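ingest -> validate -> predict -> emit
validate: passed (alphabet ok, no gaps, 210 aa)
predict: started
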Amino acid sequence: MRRVQMILKRVMDLVISAIMLLFLLIPFAVIALTIKLDDSGPVFFRQERIGKAGKPFRVWKFRTMIVDASLQGLGKTLSRKDDRITRVGRLLRNTGFDELPQGINVLMGQMSLVGPRPTLAYQVEQYTPFQRRRLEVRPGITSLAVVSGRNALSWVERIKLDVQYIDEWSLRLDVTILIRTLWCILITREGLYGDGGINDSFVDPPAKVS
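emit:
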């Protein structure tokens, strides 16, 4: 039964992501134009992330920050008032629209609609055996951790929720998380940033904002 559900999960990923990308073609074109008009850099942000079984892949996102943002300011850490975020980028981040191009990753089999959020190689290198369990499944556009607090949660809390998701997974749980994601992103908009308006670096203590 679980194997059947896993097949149905993949079918759901393909159908929903294909429909989403098809119906969002025009909005995506408008977003791409506004990104270009606001900041002449690339429309998409491509970055290597670690997927299922530790396999690297490049994630698709709309670019929300200035070019080479990680080399400036707080580096890989992000704050609510971060001046590296562009005007259009701030709107995209607030609505979650910056993540929607990851439907491409879902179609390519690198991601799922629901699963632990994909992380960076330097984070994975510091995983404990328990934390490496989050690599047992495809990473997701949304996750149990996202709908349970997002960046307001510590890295340890996030990983516990990721492993809980893996242990308790079912199609019903995926559908519940997808519905809760819409509420979280479009209505409450909670957890965009961590305590004090600055996100956890996920490995080291968060940088201080002066």
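Helices lie at 2-23, 25-38, 87-95, 103-107, 121-124, 155-168, 171-188.
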